[in-house]
Amino acid sequence: MERHFAIIDRLEEHFLLLSQYLDLGWPGADIHKYNLEDIGSDPKLKNSDAIILSGFDHADEAMRKLLEQSENGSLPLIILLSTSRSVPDLPNILPLEGLTTSSLNNAVAEGMKRFSDRGLRDANTASGIAEPATNQYADNDTLTKKIHGLRGYRLIRELGRGGMSRVWLAERALDGLEVAVKVLDVNNIDDDRMIERFIREYNILASIENIHVAKIFDQTFTDEYAFIVMERFSGGNLIRRIRGGIKPDKALDYLRQIASGLDDVHRKKIVHRDLKPGNILFRADDTLAILDFGLARMVIEEDLSDHGEVYGTPSYVSPEQARGKNVDHRSDIYSLGIIYYQMLTGKKPYRADNPMAMFYKHVHAEIPKLQAPHQKYQPLLEKMLSKSPDGRFQSAAELIEAIHKFK
User: Fold this and answer.
1) Is 330 exposed, middle or buried (0-12, 13-18, 19+ CB in 10 A)?
2) Going from the N-terminus, what domains does the chain have, and what CATH number goes with each?
3) Do residues 224 and 185 touch, judged by C-beta distance below 8 A?
4) What is the pLDDT, as a whole number, of residue 338?
5) Which of 23-37, 113-127, 172-186, 190-204 holds the top average pLDDT?
6) What is the H or E stretch that residue 332 is in?
7) First to last CA, the chain
8) Per residue in 91-106, pLDDT tens?
9) What are the two backbone dihedrals, phi and then psi, of residue 86, each rounded to the nearest 5 degrees?
10) 272 has pLDDT over 90
11) Catalytic residue (one of 274, 285, 292, 353)
């Protein structure tokens, strides 16, 4: 029986990842994106096996009512991925931070079985419905036992995942230092470019010594897995700070720190190509660092330019990136401008229903205008978000000089 899942992502950043998680549990499932206002009105959404609400606070009154409607059978099963740090121990409410494939699919499976047992959904009465497809990622304990070759480190728990890799919290046996271990399952990679990117990420990070670029400790390969051991960040990512609100002077300081890291990255003739708040992490002392260089490329590698292909996250790509053109370091400066607007306002400058519509806006839409009390930063924003690379700051160092003028 084909499964039908609906995803409503308030943050507009997790739909692709959640789709991948669900597809691992129920291969071939029909998965669609909806808006919150579609609940109760869209027939297709009403007939879904489960609705995944991502990026909402479970304590919100509207969310509480939706969960109640789900429990009494007037709405399909709802799984709420809450932004709150304190999440009640309930099967249909999960913390968004640290979500794993197994935790999401287990919650969906348990919820569908609960609905079936109570006879709330006719579509869920078939036997075996609540058993997600088995896969290598279903059980963290099993995976821990399978990973061999990472000598000198003890895996503790999974921190998250993206694409074909997973990130684990680990402890270094030598001194007990907590580190983050990025793990790539080589045997399940059909595209050799994924392995190339993994190796490239290590080489890039290992070549840069800047407090605002993630520190690398080690890289190891076995017949089954590839590992990158890097710095562990305990302060969360920039998404969390944007969500809580950032004062203008603090946003300017964060902008300077990111630009400082980019300056060293660009001096190595490297373009990040996927700069976004989720790739900016904080230490306990509030200093930040750039990470996730899996899409980064050397500017001089003309054979790796992928003409016509668009890489990166749609909300943050530069106009030339959106058009599938060659990019250089000034593309990262544009992405940083999007992040800066988001830090100041709490929202992204452009909204669209699909990636192609978002690409169009990056190319053609007007540069957003800042309102009081942020208007004085408009010249800085406009130069970062120029549609033409020639109109932007020509280097991160030039951007840093401009930032100092506002202090």
Assistant:
1) buried
2) 4-124 (3.40.50.2300), 140-231 (3.30.200.20), 238-404 (1.10.510.10)
3) yes
4) 97
5) 172-186
6) helix 329-345
7) 61
8) 789 888 878 877 888 8
9) -110, 105
10) no
11) 274
Query: What whole-number distance in Å separates Cα of residue 110 and Cα of residue 62?
Result: 23
8 Å CB contact between 283 and 235:
yes
Count the Cβ atoms, other than its own, within 10 Å of residue 286.
12
237-248 pLDDT per residue, tens = 898 889 889 999
Which residues, in sequence order, are CB contacts of 81 under 8 Å at separation 6+?
Answer: 14, 18, 52, 53, 54, 55, 56, 94, 95, 96, 99, 104
- Which residue, 161, 143, 149, is CA-closest to 222? 149
Average pLDDT over residues 115-124: 51
Q: What does the alpha-carbon distance between residue 76 and residue 114 come to, in Å, rounded to a whole number?
A: 12
User: Do 290 and 212 touch, CB atoms closer than 8 A?
Assistant: yes
**69: nearest Cα among 93, 39, 47, 42:** 39
Which residue carries 């590839």 as its tokens? 226
DSSP state for residue 110 in the 8-state scheme: H
In degrees and rounded to multiples of 5, residue 216 shows phi and psi of -105, 140
The amino acid that residue 241 corresponds to is: R
**pLDDT score of 2 more than 70:** no
- CA–CA dist 193, 74 (Å, integer): 47
286 labelled catalytic: no
Instruction: Among 182-196, 329-343, 362-376, name the one with the lowest average pLDDT.
Output: 182-196
pLDDT-based confidence at residue 319 (cuts at 50, 70, 90)? very high
**Cα 318 from Cα 115, distance rounded (Å):** 45
